[in-house]
UniProtKB/TrEMBL annotation:
Keywords: Phosphoprotein. GO terms for biological process: phosphorelay signal transduction system. It holds the Pfam family Response_reg. SMART domains: REC. Coiled coil: none annotated. This is CheY chemotaxis protein or a CheY-like REC (Receiver) domain. Residues 7-124 form the Response regulatory domain.
Length: 177
């Protein structure tokens, strides 16, 4: 990892688990800034302002569950990786549900020593996804510019059926936005 400050948001209501999680994160990310929430109110108040690089969340919290937290993150910070660190996701059906709803991974608290390699894997995958999204955005931008130039040139040209071509190009342009 680089020497940049990495921002980790932890949603955890148990102080001992919070301290253990922080210790494991620091093994992988020495330059880390934490934000912590212990319930829904703190979570919603801090998350968006903090703009974390990753969210680590327990599944069972006093006034919400981890799936609600995951969906909130997906709604407000869609590309932010989200990892469950919990004691109860030993139910295969629940694990599948969390992954299908956009979790980047999960770890049982009893295996907390595995957090550094999990973080590395999640962050590498997320970086690849972000690169792909950026490349896709750039490709679409280039296509839009090309179509706009073609439309401009076509407007100046004296070509039979020009209006139909302009309409078609405009439809293509509208569909790639």
């Amino acid at each position: 990892m680089s020497n940049d400050i990495f921002k980790v948001f932890i949603l955890e209501d148990m102080e001992a688990d919070l301290l253990l999680t922080k210790r494991q994160v620091r093994k992988f990310l020495p330059s880390v800034l934490f934000a912590v929430a212990r319930n829904r109110t703190e979570f919603e108040a801090k998350l968006i302002e903090f703009q974390p690089d990753i969210v680590l969340s327990d599944y069972n919290l006093p006034d919400m569950n981890g799936l609600e937290a995951l969906l909130y993150v997906r709604e407000h910070l869609d590309s932010t990786p989200f990892v469950f660190i919990t004691g109860i996701l030993n139910d295969e059906e629940r694990v599948a549900e969390t992954i299908l709803n956009g979790a980047s991974g999960y770890l049982l608290k009893e295996n907390l020593q595995r957090l550094p390699p999990l973080l590395e894997s999640v962050l590498e995958k997320n970086a690849a996804v972000l690169r792909h999204k950026e490349e896709e955005w750039e490709r679409r931008r280039k296509n839009q510019i090309g179509i706009q130039k073609t439309i401009a040139a076509l407007r100046e040209a004296e070509i039979p059926g020009k209006e139909e071509l302009l309409e078609t190009l405009q439809e293509v342009f509208d569909n790639i936005r």
